[in-house]
RXLT1 xylosyltransferase
Amino acid sequence: FTDHVALGNEEWNPWDADEKNELAASQQRYEANLKMIKYARSHLEQTSLRVQIWGKAAIGLYLWQHIFGGHLEPADMTAQWREGSQNAGKTYFSFLTGPSVVPGYFSVEAEHVVLVLNGREPAKVAYATQWLHYAQSLMESRKIQHVAVVLLGNEQCNNAWIQPYLKRNGGFVNLLFVTYDCAFLNEEDIFQWPLGVATYRNFPVVEPSWSMLHDPRSYLCNFLGTVYKNSSRETLIEILKQDGLDKLCWIAAREQWQPQETNESFKNYQDALLQSDLTLCPVGINTECYRIYEASSYGSLPVIEDVMTPGDCGNSSVYHSAPLQLLKTMGAPFIFIKNWKELPAILEKEKKMGLQEKIQRRKKLLEWYRNFKAWMRQKFINTLENSFLPSDKG
């Protein structure tokens, strides 16, 4: 991907027409940030909160690298132990991940812990439960004071197993951030968390480049994925073939899901996102899929099948726009459709759209996605600080 990013040595900001001023301003910001980092490092004791994040699910990498913009050492993704740290707000965060991070075999260096867990299927729940019991024992022996959980939830929202661990139900977990449109979200101690990109397939943090924004793209749309029998994905492929639209789009359908990408299939997928104006996002087991966030990373507009999938997901007391409540609430500039029969009309319109209009749309999408991640980061930090820091009652 680096060849799309290399822009000589100049730093370039796609969101400002006056690039010279922007260059000077970004240089100033960079220097101000450096000063801030140096200051923060020398005043570590002044941060009010130290939080250790234990990344025991791949979604932890989305939290740390994509939303927090954090780094990990060593960079090698297969390393047994990886860690990183940063200051944010009043908090010093450290992040640990890797197979060697196991209960009792690493030093707990903060009084406040965020556990990142996978609750997608029974075997994962059993593993997650071991971590919760470990955290509970640390609470009971007063080694830690607070616990929050970021949970990759079940795709049908069968997350009842976590309920007894929540403080509101007599447990010890102060806060829960959970993926998908879980019906028990309340915006008090249970919050929706984005699914993000497939970090378990090593999907990278993508920096927008000049060519990503300005180059014409070869395809109107793309869909690379598994086509399940009797699913709306079959309907989608039929509709594309009927009108010969599959010739204008990059379509690569397979009948079996493959958890591990080959280098070639992954490169194909990234190229398809980069070379298509639209990315088609049919529902899978859940409406929310990695593809939505991955397409946004490359400025390819997601066209989302906006229907509820079977299971226990749905509206909650605070959200009434399921599915994809979080993205809709945040004003995601996507195309939402109820039926793939609407697609030919969308592609017709797409054919007539000029490059300038597409460039503006890409800018809007990339800027929205950048702001979305920044907002999620801020919300996460504020929520932890409000919950973990003693409130000043003076």
Remarks:
- The mean pLDDT is 89.
- Residues 47-179 form a domain with the Rossmann fold fold (CATH 3.40.50.300).
- The first strand starts at residue 49 and ends at 55.
- The chain has two domains: 47-179, 203-371.
